[in-house]
Amino acid sequence: MPPPDRLPADLVLEGGGVKGIALVGATVELLRRYRFERVAGSSAGAVLAAFLATGLDADGVLERTSRLEYDRVPDAWAPVPVVAPAVGLLTRSGLHPGRYVTEWVRRELADLGVHTFGDLRREDPGDDPTLAPWQRYRLVVTATDVTRGRLLRLPWDYRDYGLDPDAQPVADAIRASLAIPFFFAPQTLRDPRTGRRSTLLDGGVLSNFPVEIFDRTDAAPPRWPTFGVGVGDVLSDGEVSVFPHRRLLPPPVRLLDSLVATTVNGRDRTYLAQPCVRRRAVSIDTSGTRATDFDIGPAERARLVSAGTTAARDFLAGWDWADYLRECRGVATG
């Protein structure tokens, strides 16, 4: 059982494919001191965010995440090696359909009593009064609508598509956020009012780490901190890539691969370099692991979890809420 005196906080989890394993180590460490009122995530961070939004404690998080068979995540369109991924890429814009991970998430959440966003409604009279009814949820999942050219914060933005946020399946939003360009097939969102269809991709295309998503917009000081946990913030000499076997690709495709990977990995780095943003962000060094290295073994998975644990411990050792309020929010705490 979690300690009864844990402090409230909000949490934002960065995406990063298989690097998301490191998020588990950091989150479990944070859960020793904090309980999370609201959680947001992109891509792999959205999966963990959904579990946390159900109220799982550290043991529950470890148990649920351990059930994912990572080598099955890059699933196949058909039982034809090499050919099926190529055909999928050409006809459905993705090497893999993403069925396994979607159904795994759907099944695990259903076991926890969560099916739609309506199951994660949150009403708190102390919230920012500018929050609309369609923003009062324990979970926010980010995705990118490349048809309309906009970042989606789900379930908040479903209403712009003529959809009831309460009725939308959580697993469907997570699957859209997981749609790493070209690796997983994109998802489609249809506006029932007009019949217009939008193509949805990984939230990281526009914002992989929206640490500010829960910040108050009224004049009141925050009641508790919002922490961010990010992966891959340390620069390395390795090539960024989405496609496996990158060196086998023709030069134009390698360039496109690098462009997409750079967009997903580097979009938020200028924002994260701001001192007061970094003050509230746990940065995990996942150098040496690519987002799509789903075939890593137990030793590498354990290394990533350990890196997350160490990063969170180091962060907490230097974290001071009163100092942050005074220096970054201008709030007198004496």
From TrEMBL:
PROSITE patterns found in the cross-reference section: PNPLA
GO-annotated biological processes: lipid catabolic process
Keyword annotations: Hydrolase, Lipid degradation, Lipid metabolism
GO molecular function, one term: hydrolase activity
PNPLA domain sequence ranges: 11-215
Active-site feature positions: 43, 202
Gene3D superfamilies from the UniProt entry: Cytosolic phospholipase A2 catalytic domain
Motif (GXSXG): 41-45
Motif range (DGA/G): 202-204
Motif GXGXXG boundaries: 15-20
Annotated coiled-coil segments of the chain: none
Keyword Hydrolase on entry: yes
Statement: the UniProt record of this protein carries the keyword Oxidoreductase: no
Transmembrane segment boundaries: none
Organism superkingdom: Bacteria
Record protein name field: NTE family protein
Species per Swiss-Prot/TrEMBL record: Geodermatophilus siccatus
